[in-house]
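Appendix B. Raw example, untouched.
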Amino acid sequence: MTAGDLSLVVTNTRLRTGDTLRPWATALGIRDGKLAVIGMAAEILKMARAETRIIDAGGQLLTLPIGTAVGSGVTVAVAPDGCVTLTVDQPQ
């Protein structure tokens, strides 16, 4: 993935990934409504462009269901109080 590919970055989170090799991350990136990358905020933010929307999750714990893979459809909602909710689309 190259810089500028991401349309949305969620950072400042404690993200439980379900991956035994990398069980925790601090950010995720979304491109075209799909999960594009999960990792540490510093590396993910390098992929953002001027138009990329960046959401600060305020240190919230976010959990991806076990088996969620890069390329899964993801909806990110931010409530007026700043609460971030991740919903992973279920395969049809």
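End of appendix B.
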